[in-house]
Design goal:
- The chain is α/β, with parallel strands linked by helices.
- Helix content is 33%, strand content 19%.
- Strand 18 (422-426), helix 15 and strand 19 (447-450) form a beta-alpha-beta unit.
- The longest helix is centred in the first third of the chain and has 15 residues, at 112-126.
- The chain is globular and about 75 Å long.
- The relative contact order is 0.08.
């Protein structure tokens, strides 16, 4: 990999993307507004009219509830120079778009979402920047944060924000790249075959990272082999000199010994991972010492030497993310000192093992999403607490009808096995968690089940101490659609209250 190019980059005004180039990229018809020129540069691209900035582009996409075409006039009033539309909005006929007061230009296309992807792909190919593409069944977001945080010790880094990892989020992330950025760390999530192929075509990663092949989106991908096939589409459009970083502790990934003529770099944690990869792990985290909810210490062993790190995020599994970051950072020329410093500065993100220390109790906010592997990892983390342990677990979606019930039972049994003091199961599928937890627990009376979040919130309001005692440590974990964010908000408010109640 030619890392030297990163420090020798041409500077451009704005995004180095013109109205004319956007038109050519998606094959649309440009209708110029008053005073506009096809050679004008744009400053930003968004699909949210509320986030339009001066000189920006508004892409009018149609959602389930709202149609972006209804907000084109609003976008122009906020300073948009271009609206990408599939039809001319009623309040903006072609005649009024040309020279009307406060009007910008319109780019008329057949499909605005496809146009967004086409423009992002065109823009990415113009950029002299290294893109790190990250995918996997579990840990994509955490690994993205680790890699971006470490690389920031040497480079100007742009990373995926929030959950912008799909066919809308990835192009918007690419279109956020500005002249000062040297590396982009892009999270890439999928739920069906062909989706990663399309994401790879836009991102064209220079470094491909796969965290693991777990049990997620089985309703579409059916088996772990299907997941491996779908995730492997990330290689379809990788750069000719691309590097590949894979989890050497994953039984599916270690079989990938050569990919399109490239030999992968393996990372892992512990001697068992190194042995599982046939001794080929180039980066391994060893001598791992858990500091409970306050993180872990480890030694990172590489082919160029070893160094000590402190991982400030709770959960031993976070050490594997540190190994992944060290693997990528080594390929981009960072020193051991820079890698250790970047790992040590990491901070938790909302919804991902985020510890909230409140006056009444401690919350582990891990309610962004859930699958069997991440459930087990979260329960492992909760088990480290030296207080009474409470697990509030909700339904996991996207597992496939034929095995979903069994996977929920496995999670319930695991919660009982870990000795969690109180287990609350919320949701329709969670009844299988409840049954298995009751079968395996020493004290079934400490296990409860509610058919919905609303019913549980009502019970929590009546008897808060029964479910969330003061001084306890409480894990919140469920698929995003369970809306555990509402539960988090409630428990935060109650946990910050003084006195009784």
């Amino acid at each position: 990999m030619r890392c030297g190019r990163l420090s020798e980059r041409k500077r451009y005004k704005d995004m180095n993307l013109t109205l004319g180039e956007m038109t050519a990229a998606c094959g649309g018809r440009l209708i110029l507004g008053k005073g506009a020129d096809s050679g004008d540069n744009v400053t930003a691209v968004t699909v949210d009219s509320r986030k339009v900035t001066a000189g920006g582009v508004f892409v009018a996409t149609a959602g389930e509830r709202v149609d972006g075409h209804d907000f084109v006039a609003s976008a122009f009033s906020q300073g948009a120079v271009l609206a990408v539309v599939s039809r001319m909005p009623e309040q903006l006929s072609e005649g009024t778009a040309d020279g009307g007061p406060g009007r910008g230009s319109c780019l008329l296309v057949e499909d605005t979402l496809q146009a967004l992807k086409d423009i992002a792909e065109f823009y990415r190919r113009k950029l002299d920047i290294r893109v790190v593409g990250i995918t996997g069944s579990v840990g994509k977001t955490s690994t993205k944060e680790f890699i971006a945080g470490v690389l920031a010790e040497r480079y100007s880094v742009l990373k995926t924000e929030g959950n912008f990892n799909n066919e809308i989020g990835v192009p918007l992330t690419l279109l956020r790249i500005q002249p000062e950025h040297q590396v982009a760390v892009v999270e890439m999530g999928i739920s069906e075959f062909g989706e990663m192929h399309r994401l790879s075509k836009m991102a064209r990663p220079d470094i491909c990272v796969i965290t693991n092949i777990g049990q997620s989106h089985l309703d579409n991908l059916k088996t772990r082999d299907g997941i491996l096939k779908a995730k492997s589409e990330i290689f379809d459009f990788m750069a000719e000199d691309a590097e590949i970083c894979l989890n050497g502790g994953d039984d599916k990934l270690i079989a990938l010994r050569e990919i399109r003529g490239r030999r992968p770099h393996f990372f892992g944690m512990g001697e068992s991972a190194a042995k599982a990869a046939g001794g080929s792990c180039e980066v391994t985290a060893v001598d791992v010492v858990s500091r409970g909810l306050w993180g872990s210490d480890a030694r990172i062993v590489t082919q160029k030497g070893a160094f000590d790190v402190h991982v400030p995020l709770p959960g031993v599994h976070m050490v594997l993310n540190a190994a992944a970051a060290a693997c990528v950072a080594g390929l981009l020329g960072l020193t051991p000192e820079q890698i250790a410093a970047g790992i040590g500065k990491l901070a938790p993100i909302s919804g991902r093992n985020n510890l909230l220390r409140l006056p009444k109790y401690t919350l582990i906010d891990d309610c962004y999403n859930a699958n069997p592997a991440s459930m087990r990892a979260a329960l492992d983390l909760l088990a480290l607490a030296d207080t009474e342990k409470v697990a509030i677990l909700g339904d996991m979606f996207g597992l496939g009808e034929d095995i979903a019930d069994e996977l929920h039972r496995q999670v319930g049994a695991y919660a009982a096995e870990k000795g969690i003091d109180r287990i609350v199961c919320v949701g329709e599928r969670a009844r299988h968690m409840f049954d298995a937890a009751c079968d395996g627990a020493e004290e079934p009376r400490c296990i409860s089940r509610f058919p919905s979040l609303e019913v549980f919130l009502e019970a929590l309001e009546r008897e808060p101490e029964k479910y969330v005692p003061e001084g306890s440590t409480v894990l919140l974990k469920a698929s995003h659609a369970m809306e555990f964010g509402k539960l988090l908000d409630y428990l935060r408010r109650r946990g910050e209250e003084s006195g009784e109640g």
